Amino acid sequence: MRKPTQDSSEIVVLGDINADIIARVKSWPELGQECLTERLELHCGGVGANCALALRRWGVTVQLIGCVGEDDFGGFLLKTLAARGVNVSCVRRTANAMTGMLYINVTPDGQRTFFGSRGANQWVGRLGKSDSKLIERARAANLMGYSFLNAGSEAVAQQIIAAVHRNDGWVSLDAGMEPSKKIPRKILRAARSVDFFFVSDQEAASLTGYHKPKKAFDCLLNLAIPNVVMKLGKRGCLIVDDGTALQVPSFSIHAVDSTGAGDAFTAAFLQAQLRRWPCAEAALAANAAGAAAASVVGAGERLPTRQQMVRVLSAARLQKQWDDVRLRVLLRLRGERDADSRGS
Question: Is residue 189 within 8 Å of residue 161, measured between CB atoms?
Answer without folding.
Answer: no
